[in-house]
Design goal:
485 residues, alpha/beta, Rossmann fold, four-stranded parallel β-sheet, four-stranded antiparallel β-sheet, 15 strands, 50% helix, elongated
Length: 485
């Protein structure tokens, strides 16, 4: 099956065909670096890392550009508030983003350009737009004329009549149309500026991405991605600028990931429900976030509710627990036997369905469904009571590597299973306000009571542990415990 991608511009699924055989050029809008990024900002980088991974698995060489917007009104306002140079703010939060991104353990994009490194190319593109009659100078500012681009609105399905009455703008009644947007902003006191043919100033937001994308990837690129909130006006304006300057199709496939809600509410500062990724990872393992990203199709809204979080934690615990058991089986001194044909067929069928799901516009919920199916069969075959069998070891020796290879597409299941499960429990204990040492003491007291055949006390201690949300398992070599998930 060939790769199918939903193209936001045509609003339908289309077979993917790269411009140059074997090569993919992909640009994704990165963060404006003025603060710690919220969890919604990270949905895009996780998803497009998957897109890159899967295209590379199919033999493409992918050039993935993910930019930093390091000159912007929000950066300037933050700098003025703190009484520092805007560059100090942008560099600080680039570093903070990179710390957060490193926690995901995903490969870095091929290139991560900064707007301030592309002022020359930005000025050159604006000059081309002026030459082509697509822009005009007004009091030291340069505006794009939306009326000069007849295709304006095709990406966002908006029309100029609606924009005339409803588009929010910086009011300048001398503009040719209310939707005309700034390509170059004249310098204002206390703001960073660069020299240009129109005087000192700085670039507008939209021209920045057009310039970086075309400079680094060419005038026509394969894939342009970002959040759905960027379709209008940002991506619509990118199309107008890029195609207005070059006369060529800017992007073949537009891909947009949907938003993250918090408890079925849109994240909003006014609601006080904006959660930074840094804060999320202080209470949850980064793999929990990535697993949740897979649980919903990228074009669907993902609700980051307590139940969604709990489900992800419980699922990861099951997968990592299975890897722990697989490692144990592999160490058993059992005769070597072939992997049962039934399990081999199961893996083969799951693999086919996973590839079909990823080829069908990256249907990650179906990928998870196949992982669960294989997990269920592994547990049913190998996590049994009684004497271990050679066939179980054979299954474990293919199951563990298979699951780790599967998870590699977004760096899941790559941790030491024992370490991961302990980290998971430690974070859950922290949320409950419990200490590991206190739980260990209760478990040891119960074990001692059992050894002394004081079963009444042992039962009371078990009930106490259950009340705390601790699950206890007795076995031949003692007692294990974990936080209930």
């Amino acid at each position: 099956m060939s790769q199918i991608i939903y193209n936001s511009r045509t609003q339908r699924k289309e077979p993917f065909k790269s411009i140059q055989p074997g090569q993919v050029r992909m640009y994704v809008c990165g963060p404006t670096v003025y603060d710690f990024l919220h969890v919604g900002n990270f949905r895009g980088i996780v998803f497009f890392s998957l897109v890159r991974y899967w295209l590379e698995k199919q033999g493409y060489s992918v050039k993935f550009v993910y930019n930093y917007t390091d000159v912007d009104d929000k950066i300037i306002h933050r700098a003025q508030k703190e009484g520092v140079d805007p560059q100090i703010i942008s560099e600080q939060y680039i570093r903070e983003f990179e710390k957060d991104f490193s926690a995901l353990k995903l490969p870095a994009p091929t290139l991560q350009p900064k707007v301030t490194e592309f002022i020359g190319p930005i000025i050159n593109m604006i000059e081309r737009l002026l030459e082509n009659g697509k822009a005009y100078v007004l009091n030291g500012d340069v505006y794009y004329s939306v009326l000069s681009f007849k295709e304006y609105g095709q990406l966002s399905r908006k029309n100029l009549e609606d924009l005339e009455s409803g588009y929010r703008i910086d009011v300048d009644r001398n503009k040719k149309h209310s939707a005309d947007f700034a390509l170059w902003k004249s310098a204002k006191s206390g703001e960073p500026f660069w020299d240009s043919p129109w005087g000192q100033g700085r670039p507008g937001w939209h021209i920045e991405c057009s310039s970086m994308a075309t400079t680094l990837l060419g005038e026509t690129i394969d894939i342009h991605g970002g959040g759905m909130d960027l379709i209008f006006p940002h991506h619509e304006n990118e199309v107008a600028q890029s195609e207005g300057a070059t006369g060529k199709t800017f992007v073949h496939y537009w891909m947009h990931n949907n938003m993250i809600n918090m408890g079925q509410q849109k994240m909003s500062k006014s609601l006080g429900n904006v959660h930074t990724f840094r804060a999320f990872c202080s209470q949850n393992h980064p793999e929990v976030f990535k697993f949740m990203m897979f649980s919903s199709h990228y074009r669907s809204v993902l609700d980051l509710s307590d139940s969604t979080l709990q489900n992800a934690v419980a699922a990861l615990a099951k997968f990592y627990s299975s890897l722990t058991w697989a490692e144990k089986l592999q160490k058993e001194n059992l005769p070597l036997v072939p992997v049962p044909e039934k399990f081999q067929n199961l893996l083969s069928q799951a693999q086919d369905k996973i590839e079909a799901a990823l080829n069908d516009d990256f249907n990650t919920p179906e990928v998870l469904a196949q992982w669960y199916e294989v997990l269920r069969h592994f547990n049913a075959s190998c996590r049994t009571i009684g004497t271990l069998k050679p066939e179980q070891k054979a299954i474990a020796e293919v199951y563990g590597p298979w699951l780790k290879t599967q998870g590699a597409m977004i760096a899941l299941f790559q941790e030491s299973p024992q370490n991961f499960l302990q980290q998971l429990d430690d974070q859950l204990l922290q949320k409950k306000g419990l200490q590991r040492n206190d739980i260990n003491q209760l478990v040891q007291s119960r074990q001692k009571a059992r050894e002394q055949k004081n079963f009444t006390q042992a039962d009371e201690l078990r009930k106490q542990l259950m009340t705390l949300g601790i699950a206890v398992r007795d076995h031949q070599n003692g007692t294990d415990w974990e936080v209930e998930k």
